[in-house]
Amino acid sequence: MIIRGPMRPWELGAEKGRPVAAYYGYLRGCDNLLAQLHTKHPELCDKVGGLLAMHIDDLRALAPMWLLKTEEVRSDRAHWGANITGDIYEKGWISEMYGYSFGAAEVGLRHKINDNLMIYPGYAPREGAEPILLHYGLPFSVANWSFSKADHDEDDIVYNCGRLFPQPPYPREVNLLVTDPNLRRGLFLSIECINILNEGLLLHHAANGCPKPPWSKYLNFLKSGTFAKLTQPKYLTPATLEMMEDKIQEHVDGDSAMPYPKIHTVFSTECSSYFDWQTVGLMHSFNVSGQPGNVTRLLSCSDENLKLYKGHNLAPTHYVPSMSQHPLTGDWYPAINKPAAVLHWLNHANIDAEFIVILDADMIMRGPITPWEFKAARGRPVSTPYDYLIGCDNELAKLHTSHPEACDKVGGVIIMHIDDLHKFALLWLHKTEEVRADRAHYSRNITGDIYESGWISEMYGYSFGAAELKLRHTINREIMIYPGYVFEPSIKYRVFHYGLRFSIGNWSFDKAEWREVDIVNKCWVKFPEPPDPSTLNHDDDKSLQQNLLSIECIKTLNEALHLHHERRGCHTSKGDTTKESITSKKFDLKGNHMLANDSEEFANAHNDRMGIPSSFRFWVLFLCVFSGLGFLVVIFWVHSGHKRRGMKMKHHRVRRRSLYPGYMGTWLA
């Protein structure tokens, strides 16, 4: 952590019996059987950690229980799963955090929870809040620069005179990256964190007798008045001191006794590499979004595919028999797996949630999607607009629902009460089958499907099924956005849906081009990097912001893949993970279309699996080429020398014969 200003317990609001702590929303074990197993008072379990401001008497009471509960949770290996603990590594690493929360619950300590005092670099603070602590426990980046403390686990930088962490962008460069003032504040916090770390290293080196480092522009900046002004002590603001219980009262219309309802997020996938990289992206974004509750992947697989499938550990999973090929009609329609999987999950899983959030796999979460914020209620689900579902307004709705007037053009993100979903799920499946079988009405002028293939039958199945129950939706345009498409600058969208191709200049991304590419199981493979924000046209602000959203989407996907490869134990040397985006076209060995840098990454991935560092490969190649050239030079030199000597000897013999013809003739006779 980096301390930015004073933390006085009386100013933070700490009291005897009421400590103040930062919010650790991912400690989902407070809401499930983990708390019931490890504390007699699960209802007192607070999701807190990081910053703790506590009266000494409370600490004396808590400390033994903190240690005891840590040991207890650590030994409970049966409940290390991500769906129970929220620990994406499933190694029991956060047992100490649960030890604290369960120990506090045991001794009856309830916390004042503050989500503003501490921030992870890479995130933007709430408007008006001034974080006092920077917690750099997660990787963060600014444009092409990035930092992860895990990269320096074995680093002797403290004892190595003159060594600093990689230099981040200067403040004036950050000003050019974004125009949103709050996002810019977040980037400034990121560079402030690493600059203070580097300043600390400089002072430490000097105090331990290191020679004065040579002048550089960056060192000059760290000693400048500008840097001193940027890093002056920060003090608490009213927004910083706002506790989470204050915000809860705002959301529940003054009834402070009413708790938030429990949420469960689900998304549907299949047993394929195509869905695996989408799963990696969605799960990473879920874990950093602050989304409450649990998440489950609904994985539809045939028995044959399941035997060969490698991605079981990518997400908490509910397994579903595949309906890609309909068991009765033989129709090949993988999209039907979505309603079939939801129905199977409802009928076979023990679901402890009041609201269900349904997403697609090709989504990236940017923030929490909650029923209390978007006003979902029993009988009134919330969804995002799918305006191209023109069948709601024509004969298609009249053919397939008794209440065409109740047909809503919605899809993508769905927030629905569990009671409504139980009534609705079977109709969703049946209506999907019904519309899929109605081939006479596949045409674009009826369905809006430009391919006229019946591919969006599942979407109509959803809308017509809801209409049958007269389940009308609150349609919200502020939840989801397609990267590269028209957006409203004032809206903070919660989800990227990258189902359509998007581009920035000559760079583009289309998920369909990666259908046959195994990105997840090949070390360090990632998507082509988008353009650097500093290279974009800053004259058109709306176009700039649109491009920045597209960059954010693909950067998040690549960050998710990088972390996934780290967790797999992929080995890398410096520079291996930095690859250029090349736009020329190539084909892989199977004839599948791919980008040029994809083939390079596949070669690198293959070599990584063989355990050969890229730097070693480079030198082996260099030595081979050098040796070959040297051998050719030596052969040429020897051959040329031999030829010259042969010519001289021949010339000498001819000359001797011309000088002594008589002698030679006599000798021969």
Automatic annotation (TrEMBL):
<keyword id="KW-0328">Glycosyltransferase</keyword>
<dbReference type="GO" id="GO:0016757">
    <property type="term" value="F:glycosyltransferase activity"/>
</dbReference>
<feature type="domain" description="Hydroxyproline O-arabinosyltransferase-like">
    <location>
        <begin position="264"/>
        <end position="519"/>
    </location>
</feature>
<dbReference type="InterPro" id="IPR044845">
    <property type="entry name" value="HPAT/SRGT1-like"/>
</dbReference>
<protein>
    <submittedName>
        <fullName>Peptidyl serine alpha-galactosyltransferase-like isoform X2</fullName>
    </submittedName>
</protein>
<keyword id="KW-0808">Transferase</keyword>
<feature type="transmembrane region" description="Helical">
    <location>
        <begin position="616"/>
        <end position="638"/>
    </location>
</feature>
<keyword id="KW-1133">Transmembrane helix</keyword>
<dbReference type="InterPro" id="IPR056508">
    <property type="entry name" value="HPAT-like"/>
</dbReference>
<dbReference type="GO" id="GO:0016020">
    <property type="term" value="C:membrane"/>
</dbReference>
<feature type="domain" description="Hydroxyproline O-arabinosyltransferase-like">
    <location>
        <begin position="7"/>
        <end position="137"/>
    </location>
</feature>
<keyword id="KW-0472">Membrane</keyword>
<dbReference type="Pfam" id="PF23452">
    <property type="entry name" value="HPAT"/>
</dbReference>
<keyword id="KW-0812">Transmembrane</keyword>
